[in-house]
Amino acid sequence: MAKLTILEFPDPRLRTKATPVSAVDDRLRALIRDMFETMYAAPGIGLAATQVNVHKRLLIVDVSADKSEPIALINPEILEKDGVIVSDEGCLSVPGYYEEVERAEHIRVRFLDRDGVAQEMEAEGLLAVCIQHEIDHLDGKLFVDYLSEAKRQRIRRKLQKERRHQSAAVVM
Ligand code: GNR
Ligand code: NI
Hints:
alpha+beta; binds ligand GNR
């Protein structure tokens, strides 16, 4: 098992459009295990492969309170969207910032599971929000893209400044 490094905004690699997974094999399952370890340690409720610099269409979610509902979605496709939900979103790639984003309240999604078996699932509320947030990552999109240019720039500047201070601290 290994904890992976999470890319942070405005890293240009987060803008990569992921390509479909062609084989659900042991190598992919090892990556999924490492992604769960990384997500639970963060802690977070979702993680897209893009965020760990793997540009394949794979995401994981677990919105349970006790880390008991891990789901991996491979090559996910949203089949239906219904309703509107506005919620405060955060992102492990944009640490420390939470802003309101509008999403579909209810979705139906098709994907391959960890055994490579096709599945369909309905999701609503937080789970639906999280899956849409993660699919955005696979398309190179971040929740800050839904904010005003001014807000996005303010977040970018603050994160870059924090990072400068962090690297200065390491060499002291
Ligand atoms: O941990 C996370 N919490 C969260 C809260 C509201 C909406 C979306 C999310 S996803 C986020 C983890 C993450 O960055 N996934 O890409
Ligand atoms: Ni995110």
